[in-house]
Amino acid sequence: MSLLDKIRSPGFWRRVRAMLVKEFIQLRRDRVSFAMIVMIPVMQLVLFGYAINTTPRNLPTAVLLQETSDVGRTILAAIERTGYFRITHRLTSTEEFDRVLASGQVLFAIEIPAGFERALRRGERPALLVAADATDPVASGTALGALNRVAQLALINERMLPDQSEPLFEFRQHARYNPAGVSSLNIVPGLVGTILTMTMLIFTALSVTREVERGTLESLLSMPISPLEIMIGKIIPYIIVGFVQASLIIGFGVLLFGVPILGSLLLLALLSTLFIATNLSIGYSFSTVAENQLQAIQMTFMFFLPNLLLSGFMFPFAGMPAWARWIGEALPLTHYLRIVRSIMLKGASFSDLQYDVFVLFVLMLVAMTIAVTRFRRTLD
Amino acid sequence: MAKASDLAIDVKGLTKSFDGRVVVRDLSMQVKRGSIYGFLGPNGSGKTTTIRLLCGLLTPDSGEGTCLGYDIRTQAGEIKNHVGYMTQRFSLYQDLSVRENLEFVARIYGLDAPVRSARGMIERLGLQGREEQLAAQLSGGWKQRLALGACTLPSPQLLLLDEPTAGVDPKARREFWNEIHALANEGLTVLVSTHYMDEAERCHEIAYIAYGELLTHGTVEQVVDQSRLVTYNVSGEDLHTLLQQLDGKSGIDMVAPFGASLHVSGRDEKKLEAAIKPYRGDRRFVWTRSEPSLEDVFIELMNRSKDNFQ
Hints:
The complex is a heterodimer.
Chain A: H1 3-8, H2 12-29, H3 31-49, E1 59-65, H4 70-81, E2 85-91, H5 94-102, E3 108-112, H6 116-121, E4 127-133, H7 137-158, E5 170-176, H8 183-214, H9 216-221, H10 227-257, H11 265-289, H12 293-310, H13 322-329, H14 332-346, H15 350-374
Parallel strand pairs in A: 1-2, 1-3, 4-5
Antiparallel strand pairs in A: 3-4
Chain B: E1 7-18, E2 21-32, E3 36-40, H1 47-54, E4 62-67, E5 70-71, H2 76-82, E6 83-86, H3 98-108, H4 114-125, H5 140-152, E7 158-162, H6 170-185, E8 189-194, H7 197-200, E9 205-210, E10 213-218, H8 220-226, E11 230-236, H9 239-246, E12 254-258, E13 261-266, H10 269-280, E14 285-290, H11 294-309
Parallel strand pairs in B: 3-8, 3-9, 6-7, 7-8
Antiparallel strand pairs in B: 1-2, 1-4, 4-5, 9-10, 11-13, 11-14, 12-13
């Protein structure tokens, strides 16, 4: 029987609803869980909001060369040698220049204008544009600081230009999206994802193991309800809980830290729901694998830790080694961080975020499939 | 032998083992529709496993059969729609109220008016005034009633009750059994496992299972007759010394104190007579030939089957 047939089978939604109503009542009676829904976001927001800082390297950078000159190449080589930048894209138009920054493919884009070398030799102090994605000020700040002196020195040494007290050219720095470099602008949207990951995972990771431990699963299995119906009935109430949490964090973020929401609020709500559902599915799949509640909690934390460290929440994603970035790509938080930061700070639209939405969707389906196949239909 | 359509349960050769340990061995049983079938046996004899095999919660390693005409291997979904299973341990939601538990069950089974049918069941169970109480706060007897109510709410054709009265006081037990008889009168088939002999005597038919094997079955009278056990009831003083002297003697299969008297039983009447002859002249004791009790029969069966397994 196909999935669609199952959903259309008589009574599917009625049984899902029965499960859902039951879960809601149980949640309401469980005061500790209820407190967790409110306390975790507020506590974490206040604690983390002011605390995190680092210095990243090898940040992806795009260059737009409007002229081909030795001077330009020397400057680029020197920039790469600082260790902060890694040139990943060579661009051909200013439209591309804006797009790669908005979609988060690069953190920096450097433009060397036409006639740069000539102007330099004439001593006209031409300008070089460096645009930085400052949504993560930690990632961009240190790197930008290193730029200036290094590039000037490279020209003096290699191209035999006279060492003048005046700088030869000017770096025109353009910090986009977060010009003041306020850390909380980056941390708050990140916290939405981190807090949701933790609470959503725990809620569903316990849901099946709790029924096993309390002995209620035996009754449930002897009733005419399918694993798919049980899963959907258990996930939906927490989507609503997650939604309340997300609203709470974003609301506090706007009020306390003045974080803007530049993009569409509706898009943010929709994609947050997708992210919530993905985490709930993963947590639920843990609960079908774990033998007891303790194991479920342990699995949750084992999954949560890489999410915290490798998603780009703690350390700038682009600054991590390749293997860590590969792991990061498989974690839902990585993609949600891009989504939430892009929508809130860059005003990104759906087309900028297609890839991340796609990955979240795939992760959710994989988790749901594991959960439904692993769910015990019998007590064997 | 009854026609297939008259049977609520008809299984042959069921075997189930866990980690290489056989829990149910080559078990066959037939339960007539509308009857109360008592399922007896010591702890760990395979009663719960058998019940779980019958309602599709476990898959047998071998063997086959039907429950309400549905194949226990392939039609577990249908069986679940028509069978009410009351687990040994209370398995409704402790953090849901009486009403919420019943409404949950009603919705899962797709009853037309879940709220109304739950209310009806609360009245039938006499739980009015407690409907908003959490299941966790109910006493043992009320929990059992609620569990029975939840099982019968979807109007099943067969009830599987796994030690429903364990740990319940005698008054609540009696009421529980009155309810079971009322349900059977309405045409329901009831399979009930129990440890209590007085409960066994309230069943239409009984079966005794030990070490995973069904040792005997039939009406209470049939089971007692089949045992061919001859029992003497001895009363008098210093019965304890007599017990020690008789125990283990050839021809005497079982000696057990029963209140103020002693039950001395043997399968072979002649051997038994011979064995007790030396003591019958003792004027301290009064020997009377009596019917073996169901308990005598079961303990003797258990002793015998234990010998086979050791």
